[in-house]
Amino acid sequence: MNINMDMDPELEAFIPFFPKADLNDPVAARKGLAGLAAAVPAPDTTGMEIEDRTVPADPNVAVRIYRPHQAQGGAIIWLHGGGWVMGDLDTEHPWAARIAESSGAVLISVDYRLAPEHPFPAALDDAYAVLTWSYEHAAELGIDPERIAVGGHSAGAGLAAAVALRARDRQGPPIRFQLLNQPGLDDRQETWSALHFTDTPWMNRDKVTAAWRHYLGSSAPASPYAAPARADDLSGLPPAYIATAEFCPNRDEDIAYALRLLQSGVSVELHQWAGTFHGSQAILSAEISQRQHAELGAVLHRALTG
Q1: CA separation, residue 50 to residues 9, 230, 302 (Å)
Q2: Where is the Alpha/beta hydrolase fold-3 domain positioned along the sequence (predicted)?
Q3: Pairwise CA distance, residues 51 & 40, whole Å
Q4: Residue ranges per structural domain of the chain
Q5: CATH tag, 9-305
Q6: For position 22, what pLDDT does the model report?
Q7: How far, CA to CA in Å, does 303 sit from each of 98, 105, 238?
């Protein structure tokens, strides 16, 4: 089906320069993402303390901690995007540093294990281990254990939602807030946007299918901790901000998840960004991308200081 995409003109101009959406070769995809990340203008980290640490776990998890000069005790466990297949601390650096600076929160970026070499639940185990460690070592880290959020982009946002579910069900560390930007939540791909966005930039139905295949491995059907949209009960979860891109296969599952959270008594702020596509906020020269980044920082600041 051909979709009439009324794309933001500043974003549309960059579409010819985006690589083809393909996750069939994970090694090549990782190299491609690293190249794209290297081309992003470096963020201003003047006055920000950046520290690489290792979180003791089985196995250990590498993290990069960003402490902005105006940090006020709030923190976020931050999970990078990349379809559970791509990404690391270096590719996420441009975005992690910007969010830390704009929010004033200590940001703990997690180098979780990647699929298909490490399918579910490896990434979730890593993320949850970092949440637990951060809570238990809050005094050492200079953060308030009652003001820890979870968040991320894309697959990382889906992981953050899963961390919130696991923390609720295990009565684990309290989570103050969920910051979910274009999350991957539902492996079933039955929504209108998942069915029809077959040729959208950067992320399309085939790429989403490949990402879930790599991530789930032999885990079928998917657990709600892999695909949070499968959870029957969303009550008792932390308040959430959910952002969607208009021309993104994840769009409708994200909106449906926001509605289910609301219907379960969870406070939600939902922003559907018109004229955007999955990951287009990386085009920093576009005015709409600048607004997206500013909003992520402002929302997180308000959630952790209000």
Answers
A1: 36, 37, 23
A2: 76-280
A3: 21
A4: 9-305
A5: 3.40.50.1820
A6: 81
A7: 17, 10, 11
